[in-house]
Amino acid sequence: MAGCVARRALAVGSRWWSRSLTGARGPRPLCAAGGAGAFPPAATTTTRRHLSSRNRPEGKVLETVGVFEVPKQNGKYETGQLFLHSVFGYRGVVLFPWQARLYDRDVASVAPEKAENPAGHGSKEVKGKTHTYYQVLIDARDCPHISQRSQTEAVTFLANHDDSRALYAIPGLDYVSHEDILPYTSTDQVPIQHELFERFLLYDQTKAPPFVARETLRAWQEKNHPWLELSDVHRETTENIRVTVIPFYMGMRWRYCIRLENLDSDVVQLRERHWRIFSLSGTLETVRGRGVVGREPVLSKEQPAFQYSSHVSLQASSGHMWGTFRFERPDGSHFDVRIPPFSLESNKDEKTPPSGLHW
């Protein structure tokens, strides 16, 4: 298209997003997305940007979704903030924030080498730093197009307190880091398609953002707080592959969410996993297998990240997990990527975990 300037596009499966930047000469025309790529860092952008989408297989024209806002460098996003996920590309809305402790081994102070211990590698002293995450709803229209994930993210609960194998899932709930959010505004009174959107949020045009929490959301957050709460995040990078782990206690078992990110331009493929699981009962279990959750994801410049969730049970009230992922390069060589050690703590076992969705 003639006159299309400063075009940026993000490919998410078959859904394409495009934004045009306002420059010194005034607003540029909104351009159709013509190629894959990722949004550049938006933290320093101070111009208005328009967000649109089209479904390429059906050949639809661009439809206006909203207008981008400047990402916040300081402070938190409020309940009702609309956003585009900067890594996975889906539309979502913020429900409420969590203040987590981020243990980043990439910036940890180096301590004298130690022998391997149940906490993991043991070669670094890691101090946690407060970091903001958000509980969010995912737009159901975008779920089929998120190819960089093993499944649409969901928060799982125990469906039966006496059977740790029975799980209940609330689909379309996710945890998002502050820097993953590209905020935008919309004039649509129901901009996100999710069965809980109108049950949790009320449109109020006098507010900014114009979606406020209903009492239903406040009650749900209070009742399920111990099992939704995100408290610790663990991160480590090996050979430009960053692994982030977020563990959650569910009652009788744990859920952990893992994101793999390729920070380089070279294509790599995950081939094997190697876990070591230590229980305070004194047992040390080793688990090896092909890929993760039945997948062997490829991490490339076009699709640099993959995320999945899994579960683990212990023979004691707490323990630790750590391990490695084995990746393969295009030339057939392999390298191991460390999984940062993380604790599995049942510090909420004095309360009864929810069985299903509590209102």
UniProtKB/TrEMBL annotation:
ApaG domain mapped to chain residues: 235-351
Record GO terms (molecular function): DNA binding
Gene Ontology annotations for the cellular component aspect, listed alphabetically: mitochondrial nucleoid; nucleus
GO terms for biological process, alphabetical: error-free translesion synthesis
Domain of life: Eukaryota
Gene3D superfamilies, per database record: ApaG domain
Coiled coil (residue ranges): none
Pfam families in the cross-refs: DUF525, YccV-like
Region (Disordered): 35-56
Protein name per UniProt: Polymerase delta-interacting protein 2 isoform X2
This protein's encoding gene: POLDIP2
